[in-house]
Amino acid sequence: MTDFSALVEEAHSAFANTQTPAELENAKALFLGKTGKVTELMKGLAALSVDEKKTRGAAINVAKQAIEAALQQRRQELADQELQAQLASEQLDVTLPGRRQSAQGGLHPITLAQERIEAIFASMGFDVADGPEIESDWFSFTSLNNPPNHPARSMQDTFYVDAVGADGNYYNLRPHTSPMQVRYAQAHVRKHGGDFDIAKNQLFAGDMPEIRVIAPGRTYRVDSDATHSPMFHQVEGLWIGEAVSFKDLKAVYLNFITQFFETNALKLRFRPSYFPFTEPSAEIDIMFESGPLKGRWLEVSGSGQVHPNVIRNMGLDPERYIGFAFGSGIDRLAMLRYGVSDLRQFFEGDIRFLSQFQ
Q1: The CATH number of domain 109-357, selected from 3.90.180.10, 3.40.50.2020, 3.30.930.10, 3.30.1120.10
Q2: Which of 35, 82, 137, 303 lies 20 to 30 A from 284 at CA?
């Protein structure tokens, strides 16, 4: 007997009656398992002659392939049925409106304050400069008239990088953005044809447009309390020309501070102080004439006439060029503007706090 169509039909019928993949695997074992009907037929070939083996073996293979095809077809049918059932149970109504996030992100209050500062000074003709946060000792201190072992360094030269640059300088996390005074001024001088050698005291002798620039950015010192942080933000301001005085500093800073706080109801005063890179030097205090801080003098900036040694390190002749510089804490200005009592709240990442500024 070489016609196994009845066996194939029997397998078709058995597979078709299954309702789950497990039932189908059980039906498969009846025909293709180790003791299945097709397997038993193959075992019976051993007792036949060579010619009979060829004829009967070929017929069994045809029947086996037909059974395997029927099995695969039923597997696919059951898989399709399962998928359709899943799609029906998880059906989405795509005509419904999407669900929007209840909370939207926004800019950090320090970023808002910095952008406001940049816009105000840009309206007064100041450029905005950005410099490296890992700075050389020369730009951080020495170029600013603050030589090694000077006592004024004690609270500032704190975070050093464990490496020495190709120029032989040690590098640190900048304690202020003041290095941009010298960096920007030197670039400004070269831009306008300056060829100078500070080491040989060969300074720029040509005419040069005034330097007006602010340099906002992150700075680092060992400080940590309600009004100080090891990482904070500062904006450095610089105006260098042939006739720039304290009068100009007062006019510029008063214009800035009234725009920043959106009020003319405040007073400004200069209080004598000391900084190695300015002479004379002064702290800038403000006092609001209304509001919760009314009547209190609040320190907001250090300032002064740029020291002649710093002018010289810019590549300029201090006998010809003069100007002022100031350094204000952006974080402190933001605290006063937004009524924040503890600086550390800006950096704790509390969404409840930050969402108030959106």
Answers
A1: 3.30.930.10
A2: 137
